Amino acid sequence: MEWWLFLICFFGLLMVFxxxxxxxxxxxxxxxxxxxxxxxxxKPGMNQIVLSAYDSLAxxxxxxxxxxxxxxxxLLHSGLVVKTLDVLSKWLGRIPGxxxxxxxxxxxFFAALSGSSIAxxxxxxxxxxxxxxxRGYHNSMVLGPIMASGSLAVIMxxxxxxxxxxxxxxxxxxxxxxxxxxxxxxxxAIFVVYIMIRCAKNPSLAPAYPIEESSWSDRIRSxxxxxxxxxxxxxxxxxxxxxxxxxxxxxxxxxxxGALLLVIMxxxxxxxxxxxxxxxxxxxxxxxxxxxxxxxAFTQLLxxxxxxxxxxNMALGLEIPSLxxxxxxxxxxxxxxxxxxxxxxxxxxxxVYIPMVIALDYDPIWFGIMMLICxxxxxxxxxxxxxxxxxxxxxxxxxTMKEITLSAVPFVSLKVMLIILIMMIPEIATMLxxxxx
Length: 437
What we know:
The protein has helices at residues 3-19, 24-40, 42-57, 64-77, 80-92, 98-114, 117-127, 129-134, 139-151, 160-169, 173-179, 181-201, 216-242, 248-265, 271-305, 307-317, 322-337, 342-359, 364-378, 386-394, 401-424, 427-435. The chain is an all-alpha fold. Helix 13 (216-242) packs antiparallel against helix 14 (248-265). The longest helix is centred in the middle third of the chain and has 35 residues, at 271-305. It is globular, with a radius of gyration of 22 Å. The two termini are 44 Å apart. Pfam families: DctM.
């Protein structure tokens, strides 16, 4: 079978299984089983699937996933991260769009803990949105900032998608996690500046309201005891990786242990918190590991059928600028992201994309950061943007999907601007990983 015909048949059958309602990971495993049996025979094919799955999962760096996940789960379920809202609110003062800015800043803080866009959006939508509406905020300044702040989880340290991208694409997980810092902070700053400028020009979008003044001693005390311990924990896990003191796994283990100590110190550890945290960790980690196993078998199939080499030769033979090929690859990700979930997209594209990026002489870390932001775009774009539905679920019935979608448009545009900026200035993504070496 020609390599291009193999790809058509493979993805065609995969789409059939997915439209039948089979989970993506199991659809991938089923199609891998069918085609590897066709290519190699039943017994050799099964042996290859088992060996490739074992080889992809029996790796020390993958323990980063459950450790970072349980770190965020403990801090979220214990309620410690919610307490930071009051502390951050005291420091914002009387700025335009105060609560919208609070949602962005607190969202970036939570993103660095949980790595989950859904958890961020649902929590902020439940906690902040009712107060914003009661104070007369326009829906565009309620819905948009909360969804945008939730989506920051994809491009912040401890991002589970970054770990997954590194695992599937055979890219350094430590470098990827470090590389998310500057783009994540830059994206947060762009969102804050946009909100403040828009609300300053049109104060009716976010009416000013009386706030309780707090003394500097009260602000410093609340910051020291309410935010600083958690912030130092996040900073420590990042710096340990950056300076090469610890591997990502060792850093994640320290983060998980530190989170447990913080929850105990704040007397927030209960059986309910512990059970919810363990359950959430098992669900998320199990799903990710199954996907990695399925992706490894797909990579083997690409090699056996010659599809990897065929795609590389085709890409290198195109008489167009290599940067345009990168743009086309990212546009394909954005298109797929409007139909299927980000993890499935990585599983399908990365075994093909990363060899092409390396063959075109580009840094896979640079490409990986842009791909993460493109994957994040799909969370905010119709018809299947996941955060749009999460926001609808935590909003009053009178809030329509049209309002939710329109409120996300400015932030989608800002994300596209950031992708273009990273494409033009690769150092935004590659500077920190290169300094740490």
